[in-house]
Predict the 3D structure of the following.
Amino acid sequence: MFSVFAENLGFSIWVIWGSVVTAMGAAGFGFLAGLGKGDPTAVSNALWLTSTPTLVGSALRVPYTFAIPKFGGRAFTVFSAGMLLFPTLGLVWFVNQPGTPMWVFMLLAALAGVGGGNFSSSMANINFFYPEGKKGTALGINAAGGNMGVAQTQLIVPLIITLGTHLLAKDPAGYRLGITLSVLVWVPFILVAMTGALRCMDSISHAKSDGESYRLALSNRHTWVMAFIYVGTFGSFIGFSFAFPTLLKANFPELAKIGWMSTLGNLAFLGAFVGSFSRPFGGWIGDKVGGAKITFYVFGGMALGIALIMASLSIKNFPLYLLSFLLLFVLTGIGNGSAYRMIPMIFGAEARRRASELGQAPSSAAASAKRQAGAAIGVIGAVGAGGGWVLQQALRLSNSHFGSMAPAFWAYAVAFLVMGAFTWWFYLRSSFAIGRAPSLAHANV
């Protein structure tokens, strides 16, 4: 329970900059002052601050996976939860220093990236405790609990910022108070997570890292093919989750005149909310009809979602814009679940083929496949999260060089179609791409 709780808080702190930047201009920080007017420099600065935690969090996913067998789940959960105090308390201090330059906030945003690493350590810890028959459910609950941290932050932070402006006034001091309260609210929960993990969690002393499985996974082309595919699903989910509040404020500044909309962060939390809830459905339906088939159709739907977003911007229609983005978030959630479903199937199919060629026992092949799939998931998850940084940087560069984010959005649509083609080429053709073994043509991956 405390492992899931700590992971949930990790996601909450990881994504907190997505909501905070929308209020920092009003709090007196000039480098974000023009965000509500779509100023290219302010939008670029905001995307730097929201994308930096994504990059750091994705990079930390691999070492955080190895940390569990080395230090134990209890000790490392206490440590990883405690690390969340640095970006929170640091932000509380510097947001109340109006002259603080942007590079200081960039460092604090980078520190918030530690929350992204919590996903891997939590997943690795839970993996050691549950038998094969219960791992899917346990890991699914853990992943959903983490993803929900994004939605709860994007709902709670704007509410508390609005409270701060009512306690003082709608001036820079009021917004600074609001940001301060919206960050401090997480500190007691972080302390509870640390204390609970220390007192209630167990550590498995015999757990150890499987370096050979990581070596085999890294040398397997399917690890990198699936990493590319996962950039399109999870990278899009986390990238758009971080950027969505900024996109709403930059593209529809008139929403600030609607009091309840502004209080609810222009409904940005709905994206991560529906994306988190649709993820288990992707795994479930992947079990029924095949993970690759669902992933293939998801990419086609995501390209259509981008086209709808661009249509809504061309006519400046906020309801259509919001619904189009919610469709995109739902599809990323389904794609996350279906893509994760593909990984053990792919490695299992390849292991059976190799065992057949070498005359090995099926049980030995199955055990090797599970270890390699587990190692590959860590790598794929890290690369996928890094895709969120690429997505936000593409938005920033498009806005800076073309004065519009439209080129980046259309590039996403093309990328989604390419990823769909990759899915078909490697996993849906009649001759399955792993060794072109006819017996694997309908391997349900």
